Amino acid sequence: PWMIALQGGDAQRGEEIYHSHPSECMRCHRAGVGHEAGGEAGPNLGGVANRGDRIFLLQSLFVPSAKVANGYGLVSVTLQDGKSIGGILFDSTDKVIDIDVGTTISRVNRKDIKEMTPPISAMPPMAGLLKPSEARDLVSWLSTLKQSPPKAKSQKEIVPIVLSNNSSPEEKTTDTTAPTPAPKAEEKNSSSEKNPKTSSVSESTLKTASMPATSATSITIAATAPTSASPEQMALGKAQYALCLACHAADGNGAAGVAPPLAGSEWVTGSIDNLIRIQLRGLQGPIKVKGTEYNLMMMALAHQTDEQIANVLTYIRNSFGNQASAVTPDQVLALRSEAGKPMLTVADLEPVVAPTPPKAASGEPSATQSTSTPKLGIIDAIGLPPVLLFGIPLFALSCFAIGLKNPD
Question: Are strands 292-298 and 283-289 parallel, antiparallel or unpaired?
Answer without folding.
Answer: antiparallel
